């Protein structure tokens, strides 16, 4: 459905996206994971035709956005929730949804039906008549997400949809993204939160400095690049940490020699994968 074929994009001397290739498989939730500045937003903007690649080709449903992207008919099948919230602050959430719905050609009872479904989805029905300027950051993020799906697109691109809100709102937004996944939407999800990518995505592309470092299922990424886990063991008044891929075996060996009072095992995760691939922590 969405194909990046050796795509690069520079801003001046800076290569924001460097030779990026991937293809979305049918029905999958695809993650773009990387720290700030990795090139995620630049990639998303090329995916929807807002930016043009310097090199390589982006195809959506087999087509390119060569001409005026707004003219492309297949744009109807795309929904974007941009990283920087794009809403009209002076009008209500219902009117925002109506406005964006009309842009996508909805009208009459069909439009009203979608507006009310999206308000419901975003849990904003009670405040639908209030001006968006009065909303909290979390409410704006939820509306930003609802606007992306007002025309019921097949593919939804969510650019850091949980960024900049408190943990509770983050959870509320994340629940809604999971609901979209469970409703069978195809999703491209960018984040710098490894636990979100791990929980949500079928496959994850790890990006750093514009480059694709690895692309696979979470499980396969961890198997290939995670290395050993950490087993922390307390014996008597001594604590030791052991690198191991076989925590039960290591524990059994230790127990032959000493009495283990406590232990804790931390398996490798995407954070470890990123560290092993780049030599740097994902969050810095
Ligand atoms: N319009 C722009 N002009 C100049 N530099 C840009 C522009 N957009 C992005 N960049 C730079 O490109 C790099 C990648 O940015 P971005 O795609 O926003 O990364 P991410 O979304 O992963 O944080 C960053 O170094 C950023 O500063
Ligand atoms: Mg970004």
Describe the fold and architecture.
By secondary structure, the protein is an alpha/beta fold. It folds into two domains: 2-222, Rossmann fold, CATH 3.40.50; 228-267. 34% of the residues lie in helices and 28% in strands. The chain contains nine helices and twelve strands. The protein has helices at residues 40-47, 93-103, 108-121, 137-148, 167-182, 194-200, 218-225, 247-257, 270-278, and strands at 2-11, 14-23, 29-33, 55-60, 78-81, 155-159, 186-191, 203-208, 211-217, 229-235, 238-244, 260-266. The chain has a six-stranded mixed sheet, sandwiched between helices. The chain starts with a strand and ends in a 6-residue tail after the last helix. The mean pLDDT is 93. Adenosine-5'-diphosphate (ADP) binds next to β2 and α1.
- Determine the number of helices (DSSP H or I, runs of at least 4 residues): 9
Mean pLDDT: 93
Distance between the termini: 34 Å
**Low-confidence segments, ≥5 residues, pLDDT <50?**
none
The whole-angstrom Rg is 22 Å
Features:
about 280 residues; alpha/beta; Rossmann fold; 2 domains; 6-stranded mixed β-sheet; 3-stranded antiparallel β-sheet; about 30% strand; binds adenosine-5'-diphosphate; binds magnesium ion
Structure summarized in a few sentences:
With 284 residues, this protein is of the alpha/beta class.
Topology:
Blueprint: E1 2-11, E2 14-23, E3 29-33, H1 40-47, E4 55-60, E5 78-81, H2 93-103, H3 108-121, H4 137-148, E6 155-159, H5 167-182, E7 186-191, H6 194-200, E8 203-208, E9 211-217, H7 218-225, E10 229-235, E11 238-244, H8 247-257, E12 260-266, H9 270-278
Parallel strand pairs: 3-7, 3-8, 5-6, 6-7
Antiparallel strand pairs: 1-2, 1-4, 8-9, 10-11, 10-12
């Amino acid at each position: 459905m969405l194909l990046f074929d050796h795509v690069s994009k520079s801003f001046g001397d800076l290569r924001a996206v460097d030779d990026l290739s991937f293809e979305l498989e049918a029905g999958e939730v695809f993650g773009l994971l990387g720290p700030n500045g990795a090139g995620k937003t630049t990639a998303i903007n090329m995916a929807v035709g807002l930016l043009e690649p310097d090199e390589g080709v982006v195809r959506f449903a087999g087509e390119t956005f060569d001409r005026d992207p707004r003219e492309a008919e297949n744009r109807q099948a795309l929904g974007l929730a941009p990283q920087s919230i794009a809403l009209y602050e002076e009008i209500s959430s219902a009117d925002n949804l109506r406005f964006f719905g009309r842009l996508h050609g909805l009208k009459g009872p069909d439009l009203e039906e979608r507006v009310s479904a999206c308000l419901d989805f975003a849990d904003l029905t009670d405040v639908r008549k209030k001006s968006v300027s009065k909303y909290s950051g979390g409410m704006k993020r939820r509306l930003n997400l609802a606007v992306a799906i007002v025309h019921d697109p097949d593919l939804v691109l969510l650019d850091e949809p949980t960024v900049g809100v408190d943990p509770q709102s983050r959870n509320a937004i994340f629940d809604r993204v999971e609901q979209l996944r469970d409703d069978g939407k195809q999703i491209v999800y960018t984040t710098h939160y490894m636990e979100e990518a791990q929980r949500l995505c079928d496959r994850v592309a790890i990006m750093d400095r514009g480059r694709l470092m690895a692309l696979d299922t979470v499980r396969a990424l961890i198997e290939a690049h995670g290395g050993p886990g950490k087993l922390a063991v307390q014996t008597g008044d001594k604590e030791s940490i052991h690198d191991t891929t076989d925590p039960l075996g290591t524990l059994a060996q230790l127990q032959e020699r000493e009495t283990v009072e406590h232990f804790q095992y931390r398996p490798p995760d995407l954070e470890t994968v990123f560290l092993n691939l780049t030599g740097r922590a994902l969050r810095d």
